[in-house]
Q: What sequence folds into this?
C-alpha cells in the first residue's frame, strides 16, 4: 500500500509480532525481488527496507531501528558492472553479520565478494514469476550456498535456514555458490528460453507449410503425458528482463543463439504484420 507524506510517498512495509528486538535484517533494493523478500521475512524478524529511491523508504521505521545491529543484509539489486562496489558500500553502511545475495548474478561473483569481506556471504537464488513473487517464494525451495571453508559458515547457514523455516519456506544448501549461480542461469532462465526458441522455430515451419500450430503439436500430447519430455510452449517473442539479459551474465557463445533466434523471430513477425497492413 502507498502512503503519502507531504509531497512524497513510501511503501508501507508491515511489521508484525513475535520478533527478536536485539537485531534487525535489512533488505537493500525494494523492487520486484526485494519487496516480496521484505514482505516474507518481516513477518518473523525486525526488518527495514533500503532503496536508492528515497520515496520507497519508510524513514520513521528505519530511524526507529537505526541503532540495532544488522544480522542479515539481503541484496536484491540488479546485477551490473557496479554490483560489487554497491554491495561493499551497503556493507559499510549497515555492517551486517552476513550478506545474502538474492539477485541473479554472474558466476564467480559470490566468491569474489567473499574474498573481499570477512563476514560470510550467502548466495540464495530466487525463483518465481514477478507478478506473484511472494507466493512463489513460499512455493519453491530456497536454494543457498556459501563458499567452502568460510569462517562461521555453518552457524550462519543454520541461522538463514531457521529464518526461512519460520517463514514456512524450505531450504536446500548446495556445495558452493558457483554451482548455484550457474544453475540459476542454465537450468532456469536459459532453459526456458531454449524451449520458447523451439516453439518459435516450430511455428515458423508450421507457417511455411501452411499447417495449424496447435494441431501439429497435438501429435506430442500423449508423449508429453507419458514421458514428460515434449513440452509445448507458446511461440511468442521473448521479452522482459530475465531470460535474454541473463545470457550476458554467463557469456556462453552457444547460449547466445537463444538471443539470435529470438531476434530473427521478431523480424519475421514484423514482416508478417507489415504484409497484413
A:
Amino acid at each position: 500500500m502507498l502512503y503519502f507524506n507531504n509531497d512524497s510517498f513510501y511503501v508501507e512495509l508491515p511489521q508484525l509480532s513475535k520478533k527478536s528486538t536485539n537485531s534487525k535484517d535489512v533488505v537493500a533494493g525494494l523492487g520486484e525481488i526485494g519487496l516480496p523478500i521484505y514482505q516474507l521475512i518481516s513477518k518473523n524478524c525486525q526488518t527495514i527496507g533500503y532503496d536508492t529511491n528515497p520515496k520507497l523508504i519508510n524513514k520513521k521505521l528505519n530511524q526507529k531501528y537505526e541503532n540495532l545491529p544488522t544480522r542479515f543484509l539481503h541484496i536484491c539489486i540488479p546485477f551490473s558492472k557496479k554490483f560489487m562496489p554497491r554491495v561493499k558500500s551497503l556493507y559499510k553502511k549497515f555492517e551486517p553479520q552476513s550478506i545474502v545475495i538474492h539477485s541473479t548474478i554472474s558466476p564467480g561473483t559470490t566468491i569474489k565478494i567473499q574474498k573481499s569481506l570477512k563476514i560470510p556471504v550467502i548466495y540464495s537464488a530466487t525463483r518465481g514469476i514477478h507478478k506473484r513473487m511472494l507466493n512463489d517464494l513460499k512455493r519453491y525451495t530456497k536454494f543457498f550456498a556459501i563458499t567452502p571453508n568460510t569462517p562461521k559458515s555453518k552457524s550462519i547457514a543454520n541461522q538463514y535456514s531457521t529464518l526461512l523455516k519460520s517463514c514456512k519456506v524450505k531450504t536446500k544448501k548446495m556445495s558452493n555458490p558457483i554451482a548455484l549461480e550457474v544453475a540459476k542461469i542454465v537450468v532456469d532462465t536459459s532453459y526456458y528460453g531454449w524451449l520458447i526458441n523451439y516453439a518459435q522455430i516450430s511455428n515458423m515451419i508450421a507457417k511455411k507449410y501452411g499447417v495449424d500450430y496447435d494441431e501439429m503439436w497435438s501429435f506430442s500430447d500423449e508423449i508429453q503425458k507419458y514421458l514428460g519430455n515434449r513440452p509445448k510452449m507458446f511461440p511468442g517473442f521473448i521479452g522482459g528482463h530475465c531470460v535474454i539479459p541473463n545470457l550476458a551474465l554467463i557469456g556462453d557463445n552457444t547460449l547466445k543463439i537463444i538471443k539470435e533466434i529470438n531476434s530473427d523471430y521478431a523480424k519475421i513477425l514484423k514482416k508478417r504484420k507489415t504484409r497484413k497492413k
Q: What stands out?
A: Residues 1-18 have pLDDT under 50 and may be disordered. Residues 177-209 form the longest helix (33 residues). Strands lie at 2-5, 8-11, 24-28, 47-50, 70-75, 98-101, 121-123, 142-146, 171-173. The radius of gyration is 22 Å.
